[in-house]
Amino acid sequence: MNIDTIKPFAGRKAVKALVVVIFLWQVLAIVEEAGSDFANDILFYLAAETNPYVVGFFILLLVSTYLLGRRAGVEMLLATSGYMRTGVKYALITTVIALAYLLVVGVRLVGWHATWEALSWKCLVIFFSMLIVWLLASRRVYQEIKLQGQDPSVS
Questions:
Q1: How confident is the model at residue 73, as a pLDDT?
Q2: Number of domains the chain contains
Q3: Who contacts 74 (Cβ-Cβ below 8 Å, separation ≥6)?
């Protein structure tokens, strides 16, 4: 496996893991929001999810995860770090990107105080979600590199 083949492969693996986590986020959000009038609650939920800021958030996550996944794949191929270190590193980077977007949009829409209260608990949720995404993706990329005969642990 070379750099030209690892980049798209690692980007796709990272995006696939992110799509699974986004799907789980959405299922949990629907369950949390659903009350006694499920059909009406679904309509309000869908209206909230089609908000341009929410769509922008998910597009930002998908694009940044793909681009960072390409970079993470190259790092693992060149054996600069193992999959655990790579996963944690890119989980932190993706969390910072997501929180920066949420902070900017939140301050613009509702002000600093309300945004800070909302982000305080979302910070942990986003970090642990991104940690799952990146550990899954980096582990799969690491396995593929080993399968192709280029063990990243050997310098």
A1: 92
A2: 1
A3: 3, 6, 7, 10
